[in-house]
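anyone seen this seq b4? input:
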Amino acid sequence: MLASVGVLLCAPRVVFAKDPAGKIDLCIDESGNLGITEPFVVGALVTANVDQHLRQFSIIRKETGYRLTLRYGSGDEHKGPYAQKLLEYFFGEKDLRFCAYALASAKNADLPPNPKIKEIAYHDLYRKLLFQCANKNKNLSLNLKQRTKTGGDRFLHDYLRQNFTNIVELKVVRAYQNDLMQFADLLTGCVAADKTQPICKVKQRLVESLKKNLSVKSLWENSLIKNNKFSVSLMEK
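predicted toks r here
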């Protein structure tokens, strides 16, 4: 599938919108599944200058010749140079930051099997994520992926709108539509993978590159909770 090269190939589905002036944008992605023995991470790429970064991502795509959709889950070795250039750009741009809320494998597996309880825990992760990375005095524009085909996403959308009155826009996008969402996928996947030790070499290099830039031995270190550039919080309850 061809990537967007920095622009939308087709319009995202707008779930909710007000006047978005003065907003900050969050591209939110997930890695893992709730209620099983694996890490579950929800992460957000945060910016106030979407258009500027999309243009720069487009330039980096052309420089590296990468035309596919960037996904952490892909073992495509050709994504390496493009992803590394994006990491360099990310760490050099004050406007771009990433924050995540993470649930370790054991804690995730301990969740009760009751679907309603898991839904509450799922919504609570999103709530904590937004409190962690979004200024309550700023208008928010949320970009989310479609997670279900049964309408279950609507419950999350309603929950967020009810709990965050400063959400002025909520859009559902597909990964190939937006390079920033793809980068959010990459960063979120790296956090989750650092607990499971990826076998794929290109994934290992990306995780190690992140840790080197952050001067940490693990992307699950407590020191990252208060990191302004790349913060990762652990869900204890």
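The CA atoms of residues 97 and 228 lie 7 Å apart. The mean pLDDT is 88. kinda curious what u guys think
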